Amino acid sequence: MRLPLIRKLEKFTRLSQADKEMLVRIAAQRVRRFAAREDIIHEGEKPEFINLINEGWACRYKTLEDGRRQIIAFFLPGDLCDLNVFILKEMDHSIGAITPVAVSEISRAAFDEMMIGHPRITQALWWESLVAAAIQREWTVNLGQRDALERMAHLLCELFIRLEAAGCTSDSSCEFPLTQTELGETLGMSTVHVNRTLQELRASNLIVLKDRTLTIPNLQALQDVALFNPNYLHLDREGRHLDANEE
Amino acid sequence: MRLPLIRKLEKFTRLSQADKEMLVRIAAQRVRRFAAREDIIHEGEKPEFINLINEGWACRYKTLEDGRRQIIAFFLPGDLCDLNVFILKEMDHSIGAITPVAVSEISRAAFDEMMIGHPRITQALWWESLVAAAIQREWTVNLGQRDALERMAHLLCELFIRLEAAGCTSDSSCEFPLTQTELGETLGMSTVHVNRTLQELRASNLIVLKDRTLTIPNLQALQDVALFNPNYLHLDREGRHLDANEE
DNA sequence: ACGACGACCTTACCTATGTTAATGTCGGAC
DNA sequence: GTCCGACATTAACATAGGTAAGGTCGTCGT
User: Fold this and answer.
1) pLDDT digits over A13-64, tens only?
2) Nearest 5°: CA angle at A15, between A6 and A73?
3) What is the pTM of this model?
């Protein structure tokens, strides 16, 4: 069994056996499980750990005073929530489980230990956090410039490619647990319009979405309607400048 | 003369004299100036430096294939662009000057040196980068959930408070160099609607905006229409847990 | 077996915002 | 002083997407 985190980080750099063992060890200590819809951490609380999602989907979200909710990010298997958070006094948003999830809590001490002894991991984790920031920026573009159809298509492309990097797809399909309400809260549109938009994508044979399973028969076609450019995911390892000796 | 960066970082923690001298020194070496509208770095280029804005306003932006442009972030005096960027192979977006700007380029070596010798600065810079990420998240909420009026009001509140932290306001006024086109590209709305929205804010006496100067007679009132909660800026130093001995 | 519920889907209608395009204002270049 | 370009403003009209309401289906608890 491969840890999704390891699988993902290897998209960026090669890890030594010792690096991998370190990650496995870190992921094994302090594992917590949450039911679907349960909060992992809530706005206002003091963050004490870095959370690593091992199984399941979670999301970052924020609620306005009047109840409107925006999903700000999705955490898929292998994703980390906020390197360095412990610097902040309190959470300005919440993190909630979408499906049942298994989360590893990484303490500040464990993190520091890893930073010192494993420069490769450290660099890979910074890469992962830069990519997370790039994704957040792309969401800004998505919400600001793309219309409903493009927006939905873009989200589906992104999630599919990220799931692929974590080893959670098979062929052109993946599990897809989001409800239409959640899609609406993500894309800033009503559930009615989410429904219309999904119908439209289905009618154009761009997606098959049924029984919590998403199939994308032609990813390039979907990327084209989304004006999707995968460069922001920084997944291409070739040509990267590395500090260190390859094994 | 105070460096806006120092002024801002002191919202988070106290810096020693040596820390401040270090920052002044870093900011002084390799200063570049750009004219309004000029690109500081362009999508596709390899990032070699961390840019620090000393004077003027800049923005991060991204352009879709069909020409639509989204402004993703503003950089105000004292703002840093992306700690750690040199890890990435190429920029996935551009950074452009809005007004004429003065930028300090910080090399990887200078950054590493600072990280080693000045833990206080290091921690403060991580704080600043976490705040930048929080701002990006709030923009997601803004674009996803707020309507045009709320959205505009929210942006104005944020910019004003950030300028205040950098020491660039006087009383309830600040310079405000953005054109209506740029506001539209930021908030995902047409210039016509930007204009309507500004008129509405003026009519309610929530803002005075004229000759590139913004005045907010009653910040609380503007915050109220924006559903603005400043917690995401993490500006309250009280009660912060610090590693180290205060001077 | 029954009711309650949550997800999904649909229709009809309405409104916030976009589009187009004309007009106004101001400051700088010559 | 006038010409020009950048920006702001306004009006008339078009539309993407929101709101409200209701229906179907499958599942779960009792």
Assistant:
1) 999 999 999 999 999 989 999 999 999 999 999 999 999 999 999 999 999 9
2) 35
3) 0.95
Taking only the tens place, the pLDDT of each residue in B202-246 is 999 999 999 999 999 999 999 999 999 999 999 987 544 444 444
Structure tokens at A82: 């906020």
Nearest residue to C17, CA vs C1'? B193
Taking phi first (over 0 means left), then psi (-120 to 50 degrees means alpha), and beta for anything else, what does residue B97 get?
Answer: beta
Residues B181-194 pLDDT 10s = 999 999 999 999 99
Place of tokens 């997370």: A132
Strands ordered across the beta sheet of B80-81: B31-34, B101-107, B49-55, B80-81
Q: How far is the alpha carbon of A125 from chain B, nearest alpha carbon, in Å?
A: 11
Taking CB atoms and an 8 Å limit, are A127 and B232 in contact across chains? no
Protein chain A, residues 146-185, with a C-beta closer than 7 Å to any atom of nucleic acid strand D:
147-149
Tokens of A29: 């200590």
Mapped onto helix, strand or coil, the DSSP state of residue B199 is helix
Q: Which residue has the tokens 């302090």?
A: A30
For residue A233, give the nearest of A83, A127, A125 by alpha carbon: A127
Cβ distance of B127 and A90 shorter than 8 Å: no
Helices and strands (H, E) in chain A, number of each type: 8, 12
pLDDT at position B140 is 98
Tell me the H-state helices in chain B.
4-9, 17-28, 108-117, 119-145, 148-165, 180-187, 191-203, 219-226
User: Could B188 and A68 be called an inter-chain contact, meaning their C-beta atoms sit closer than 8 Å?
Assistant: no
Which tokens sit at B127? 């704080």
Low-confidence ranges of chain B (pLDDT < 70): 1, 238-247
Quote the mean pLDDT of chain B: 94
Output the DSSP codes for A38-53. -EEE-TTSPP-EEEEE
Judge whether residue A111 has pLDDT over 90: yes
CB-based burial label for B225 (10 Å; 0-12, 13-18, 19+): middle
Beta-carbon contacts of residue A202 (< 8 Å; ≥ 6 apart): A208, A209
Taking C1' of D17 and every protein CA, the nearest residue is A193
Summarised one tens digit per residue, pLDDT across range B156-168 is 999 999 999 999 9
Question: Which residues face A52 on adjacent strands?
Answer: A80, A104
DSSP helix, strand, coil percent of chain B (3-state; round to 5): 45, 20, 35
- Phi first, then psi, for residue A204 (nearest 5°) are -85, 10
Share of chain A above pLDDT 90, in %: 93
